[in-house]
Amino acid sequence: MRKVGTVRAIGGIAAAIIAFFAWLLPDPVARLFKLWAPAPQPIVVHVIHQDTAPVVQPPTNPSTPAGIGKNPHLQTAVPRVPRNPVHPSPDPPRSVHYLNPHLHAMHSGSWPWGVAVFGEARADDISSAVADVLSSRGREIVSLFRDRSAEQLVARDLFRGNGSLAAELHLARYCERLLIGRLSTLSLGETEGLVVAKATVTFRLLAPDGRIITDFEVTEKGGGLTDEAAVAAAVNALRNALPERMSAFL
Hints:
- The protein is an alpha+beta fold and 250 residues long.
- The chain has a domain at 109-247: Double Stranded RNA Binding Domain (2-Layer Sandwich).
- It is 36% helix and 19% strand.
- The chain contains 7 helices and 4 strands, in the order H-H-H-E-H-H-H-E-E-E-H.
- Strands 1-2-3-4 form a 4-stranded mixed beta sheet.
- 21% of the residues are buried.
């Protein structure tokens, strides 16, 4: 009986060996790799949407220097800091928009005056005529304003007595007095076939802090075949009369 059992056991082992080699022989390399190679791990793909801001995680071990054990080609995203809408950047002062960028502060012994005339289209002619009259009397004239439009805007507000604007522009740094004029014209109708017009300039002499020191008015008439010609003649007559008429007030 023992011999029979031993024979059966040997036969079973032989059958198993034969079956193993029968399974191995068709492709022994592939079969052995499949037998002993570790099972493949699943590949996990993380998709990051472009509209999602990257989240920067703090290191788990503070003692480990940054970059150790990480891909050197990957950079840590730095979150952008938005501007604070509660405290926006302040607007530049109005002096930047209105005043001549080449102005210099007054020095000892220098007492310049500023001149500005606003109103009608011929206000430029009156402004230059006023500056000429003051220069002929020994007054130093300073060009306060950046351009003609700035002169018109500032002169209009200062004429109304806007002392806060004078303080904001720091006019006391640049001039001792400011002479402002408002030019207006009016058609008076026809007389003996000519159109007659009146030109008036109202002056206000201001301290650099905006205070009104004195005011006066100069008026002249002129005539022409049209309203435009009559106004031009009145403004020219006014300009020619300024040297004599201003001497009574200045």
